[in-house]
Amino acid sequence: MQYFSVERARHIVESAAPGHQLVSISRAYGAFTNEVRTLNCRTPAGNAFRLVVKLLTDDLADATPRATADYHGLRIARAHGIPAPEPILLDETGDVLGVPGMVTRFVEGRQIAGPDDTTAWAEALADQLLRIHDISPDESERRNIYAGNELGLYFLSGDYPAKMAGHPLSETIYGAVEELRSGIDELSPVFIHMDYWPGNVLWLDGQVSAVLDWDAAGYGDPALDVGYFRMNMYLRGIKEAADIFLERYESESGAAVRNLGFWELARAAGPLPEPGRWIFASREMGDASSTVDRADTDYYEFVHDAIRRARAGR
After folding, report:
1. For the chain, which terminus, N or C, has the lower number of CB atoms within 10 Å?
2. How far is CA 48 from the centre of its chain?
3. What is the mean pLDDT of residues 104-128?
4. pLDDT class for 47, splitting at 50, 70, 90?
């Protein structure tokens, strides 16, 4: 909690909600990579009021553009009726928060990793993603979010190939992406989340109460989100949800998801070189059914199916 001294937290409250009083600081449930804390406050009238502070500590090298995308992604989402936290303060420099990040209003809800009704759960998540993809950001909105198709291939540049080497599928994935990337269809870009998985969706009373973590928000091919969600289902031990999700998405959109195999393959590079590490986030969310062994087995299946799909032009 190095960034969350009481003095720092009071300064944040003064900057984000002048006149409010800090009562306590608590760890935000279900935050897996960046530092996130809930600031429990009191309004001038004496009512309870909660702020959420998110610091982009996962990778400080690109913390500023990610904080910017997060803040403006939330603004775009909310402007179009997507349930999402209200952004209150963007700190691109870290002058207020200590590192780049943002402050939002607290939203009630919990993540669901092991649903009681897998079909209803997966279909509701597909419906929510479709509503996100119905948004077409205008030129002014695009300035503050990522070009998603470029971001989706981040692993091809810099030191990422070296960092992601070592898994038996690393060379297979890299080779297939390089082989197939020139053949994908060019589509009109839509608003995309880029990290759409159950850990970034809150539920309350059986309904989605918020979609969180827009720090990779962008515009691009919708298959980036569809493929990423499906890969997560394979890695987290509920691969049956991947096909339910896709069937619902395509049925409601009225069309097959184009470029799906290619972007599934590209998104499968994200967990390299140790896909099993992603299981622990599901465990923290209360899903005790997923195992590292199953994740590894299902990951192989997902990658090879994606390659077949991509080479078939699907």
Report:
1. N
2. 29
3. 95
4. very high
